[in-house]
């Protein structure tokens, strides 16, 4: 697994192992914010950026602090700052890193690019509770990626998520004109359409595989 | 349970007795977090390819949302408004870690099967939403009832989806072959990703149809 190159992981994360269509992460904002293409693009860019950065930071935190010294030696990594094993705290540390990072980005963007702030403003706080971000960090640990692979995976997952939500937004704009059976209006038809998109993405399955 | 409210509850006793049941009904059925409010969809899709994992996930959510609601409610008078979000996340994460460690210690296979989705309960909108919308304004016991009710509402939908996906996807029920033999070919698609989206869409549509025209606000 460790010899898979970062590029392969990137492509796989976008197409074959799309974080939304195969791992179901980030569904809440996917359903809530896929009404218009413009919002979908803004949210997609914000998620991609935060995902890439937080996987990198969480990688450093996990292998630099949380992991125990023996396990690091076993994996052939440099000794962590703290020798005790506190990996059971990884959930709370990851989410704190993500929340802090999102807050930081928000302040930074507000200060240096007010236009971008108004374009992305409302989406940034939403990202903290987007499960794709936390999920990517957890997958990174479970699959044992190295640093380059983690960043590739984070970026690919973000692009894949953005791709899915933009596709969905386009379809939903078209669907406004169709006559959908009463009980299916809103979320149910969105789910059925996502089902079809997911089936289409299964067509990529033979290309690259990661696990 | 409703009559055993402690005296520190601000509202009158009779009202609280009625309120407990009402909260239970609202969380589990009429305002079901998954089918009506569309919260917590991620995990509902990911773990429902088997009935067993659906049930474990449902139990996890009942536990986490009840406990975190209790503690958020206990601390609600002492939490500064500005930092309430991070306080809520810290409380929720604590209980998720507890449940995760429990699974790892006693049900290792299940823990492996659920993978990252146990940890993702932290970002599950149901738990966070209930803490924010209910536990911050209500007394502890009532908040626990609300947490259990919402967890229950989620668990039931999960069980329904898990049941049908396992049944049609593998022809099994709890691992025993029910639909088998020459006449039934398991539909692999049901246990893969598209089946999950499809099943959830159908379940929500059925819920909408059962509830009748008051489901209008869900339309986009």
What characteristics describe this protein?
heterodimer; A: 211 residues; mainly alpha; 10 helices; B: 220 residues; two-stranded antiparallel ribbon; disordered C terminus
Shape of chain A: globular
Mean pLDDT, all residues of chain B? 80
Percentage of residues assigned to helices of chain A = 55-70%
What is the beta-strand fraction of chain A? under 5%
Count of folded domains of chain A: 1
As laid out across the biggest beta sheet of chain B, the strand order is 1-2
Number of helices of chain A: 10
Kindly report the average pLDDT value of chain A: 84
List the quaternary state of the chains. heterodimer
Radius of gyration of chain B: 19 Å
Question: Number of DSSP helices of chain B?
Answer: 8
H/E series of chain B, N to C?
Answer: HHHHHHHEEH
- What share of residues of chain B is helical? 55-70%
Query: What's the shape of chain B?
Result: globular
Number of strands of chain B: 2
Helices and strands of chain A, in order, run as HHHHHHHHHH
Head-to-tail CA distance between termini of chain A: 8 Å
Spatial extent as radius of gyration of chain A: 18 Å
Would you kindly provide a written description of the structure presented here, covering whatever features stand out?
The complex is a heterodimer of chains A (211) and B (220). With 211 residues, chain A is mainly α. Chain A has one domain (6-202). Helices cover 69% and strands 0% of the residues of chain A. Chain A has helices spanning 6-14, 27-32, 37-66, 69-74, 90-112, 114-120, 123-128, 131-143, 147-175, 187-202. The N and C termini of chain A lie close together (8 Å). In chain A, 46% of the residues are buried. The mean pLDDT of chain A is 84. Chain B is mostly helical and 220 residues long. Chain B has a domain at 32-158. Chain B is 63% helix and 2% strand. Chain B contains 8 helices and 2 strands. The radius of gyration of chain B is 19 Å and the shape is globular. The N and C termini of chain B lie far apart (40 Å). The relative contact order of chain B is 0.17. Residues 1-16 and 215-220 of chain B have low confidence and may be disordered. The chains are: A mainly alpha (211), B mainly alpha (220). Chains A and B meet through helix 2, helix 5, helix 8 and helix 10 of A and helix 2, helix 4 and helix 8 of B.
